Amino acid sequence: IMKRLIMALALIMGLTVSASAQNYAVVNSEKVFKSVEKYNAAITQLDELAKQYQQQVDAKFEEVEKLYNAYMQRKATLSEASQQANEENIIKKEQEATEFQESIFGTDGELVKKRLELIQPIQKQVFAAIEEYAKQKGYDMVIDIAQNATMLYYSPKADHTEAIIALLKTKQ
Questions:
Q1: What is the spatial distance between Cα 36 and Cα 31, in angstroms, rounded to a whole number?
Q2: Nearest 5°: phi and psi at 27?
Q3: Reported pTM
Q4: Terminal CA-CA length for the chain
Q5: Alpha carbon of 50 to those of 40, 60, 75, 156: distances in Å?
Q6: Do 100 and 54 contact (CB within 8 A), yes or no?
Q7: What is the pLDDT of residue 5?
Q8: Cα separation, 30 vs 149, whole angstroms
Q9: Bridging pattern class, strands 24-27 and 141-144
């Protein structure tokens, strides 16, 4: 009788543990995003914009360098007041170039704003599709494996990336 009771308790505990185990899915969000044409177009547009902005920034710093080189060649022939004025002008131009660079590439810069404008609606769409899929399939948790160095192992059966991509395509 004692053996049966222990076996019954072990069985009940095993069922309880398995019933409380969370159901999860694994998704590669990077692959999902790359399957969305609007995302690829937005990334291409942002890359082109970044190149244009970088050319503008480089031109401003080249102007500073030309001013500095010209000043260094003439420095010996200039009066002290003229040297001071030239140095102040070079410093001012360098500060302007740095401020321009920050206004483009900084955390509140134009490129970040454009990225948010183009990518955020796509992110919302992808995350909504992942949430919808998880709710439909009864998943308690969705783990993103894109660029995640802490994910040591997952079963390929848990990877639902392709199903998310298929769901997104039905919504486009």
A1: 9
A2: -135, 140
A3: 0.71
A4: 63
A5: 15, 15, 37, 37
A6: no
A7: 47
A8: 14
A9: parallel
Q: At what angle do helices 110-137 and 161-171 cross, to 10 degrees?
A: 110
- Per residue of the chain (172 residues), what is the pLDDT tens digit? 545 545 444 555 554 444 445 688 888 899 999 999 999 999 999 999 999 999 999 999 999 999 999 999 999 999 999 999 999 999 999 999 999 999 999 999 999 999 999 999 999 999 999 989 989 988 888 888 887 656 656 677 778 888 888 888 887 7
Three-state SS across the chain?
CHHHHHHHHHHHHHHHHHHHCCCEEEECHHHHHHCCHHHHHHHHHHHHHHHHHHHHHHHHHHHHHHHHHHHHHHHHHCCHHHHHHHHHHHHHHHHHHHHHHHHHHCCCCHHHHHHHHHHHHHHHHHHHHHHHHHHHHCCCEEEECCCCCCCCCCCHHHECHHHHHHHHHHHC
Residues 30/154/164/132 CA torsion (nearest 10 deg): -110
What would the two tokens of residue 87 be? Answer: 């140095």
